Amino acid sequence: MKIIVSAGGTGGHLYPALALVDYIKTQDKNTEFLFVGTTDRLESQVVPQMGYEYRGLHVKGLVGNPLQKIKNAMIFVKSLKQSKQILKDFQPDIVIGFGGYPSASIVLAAAKMGIPTMIHEQNSIIGLTNKILIKKVDKIVCCYQKAYNEFPHEKTVLLGNPRASVVSSRRLQDIHHLYQIPRDRKTVVIVMGSLGSSSVNTVMKEALRDMQHDAYDVIYVTGKNYYESMRADLHDLNSSIHLVDYIDDMPSLIASCDLIVSRAGATTLAEITALGAASLIIPSPYVVANHQEYNAKELVDATAARWILEKDLDAKTFVKEVRDLLGHTELLNDLKNHAKELGKPHACQDIYQEMLKTLERK
């Protein structure tokens, strides 16, 4: 089988795509893959480094002032011609788009040429690219009930994020071992995405000073750009507060901590639910269509997480919420159990089977 995978712009689009590709390789080692993305974003560097064939499209998102949008639309039209040539050269059996504007070009071109197509929507709010493609594609995979309700049900399945399968099958380490924390101490992990958050860091400077006196340890991920300044400001905290700039094995910490405090990115929540973790979510308000708040709301409504909106976030509120959660073991266990119920640990397997069914129907 020959598969074109398109995922552009951000890790939220790219890493679920890579997770699915890695799974398919275990099922059929003869499958050939071609990734299609941008010429200058994350995927253009990561994918070739992983050894996959890659083609970049010169394409821009439909953003900016009206004149810029018109210019970018013209670039998009040109990218359709380039996409058709890629399709003719590679002759894929199916094309799968994981979002981001390059997906629109290659998936739309494939649909026009009669090649089977599938899109994956990671968030509860449908992205612009996938909105464009809804009527054109053969199959739609989503992760949230809200998105499922807005897609045409006759060709949509709610199967989850491939990253859930990755973390469910990995051998994970224990947070107490990683940070030399006594095993009778509860642990809280606080991470606001890989880059960190300036606004949340400001609140946490006060909150961590209060939390150092509690009977639990805190792993606080500052973000690489903020680490030195945060360390300087908080140099006098006791050893129960662990400041780190970045964590490259979040699944291990999610699985073994007592409480994870995080943003509500699609991949993060997929991992939290797959691993059945108790979470306190602070959705980022700085994202397109406020989709993180809607992502988080699905967990909160299912009593699978608690949340604080950033507009309501202050040190006193945050510390009180953490103490309330850690002080009630039954509540923590309920959050874990309900999160696990929402998890999709077999997402890769289910999506792959749906691909095969789509090819059979064609």
TrEMBL record:
EC category: transferase
Primary localization class, coarse: membrane
Molecular functions per Gene Ontology: UDP-N-acetyl-D-glucosamine:N-acetylmuramoyl-L-alanyl-D-glutamyl-meso-2,6-diaminopimelyl-D-alanyl-D-alanine-diphosphoundecaprenol 4-beta-N-acetylglucosaminlytransferase activity; undecaprenyldiphospho-muramoylpentapeptide beta-N-acetylglucosaminyltransferase activity
Pathway(s) per entry: Cell wall biogenesis; peptidoglycan biosynthesis
Key words, A-Z: Cell cycle, Cell division, Cell membrane, Cell shape, Cell wall biogenesis/degradation, Glycosyltransferase, Membrane, Peptidoglycan synthesis, Transferase
Membrane topology: Peripheral membrane protein
Alphabetical list of Gene3D superfamilies matching this protein: Glycogen Phosphorylase B
Gene Ontology CC: plasma membrane
Recorded superkingdom: Bacteria
HAMAP family: MurG (MF_00033)
Family affiliation: Belongs to the glycosyltransferase 28 family. MurG subfamily.
Function: Cell wall formation. Catalyzes the transfer of a GlcNAc subunit on undecaprenyl-pyrophosphoryl-MurNAc-pentapeptide (lipid intermediate I) to form undecaprenyl-pyrophosphoryl-MurNAc-(pentapeptide)GlcNAc (lipid intermediate II).
Designated name of the protein: UDP-N-acetylglucosamine--N-acetylmuramyl-(pentapeptide) pyrophosphoryl-undecaprenol N-acetylglucosamine transferase
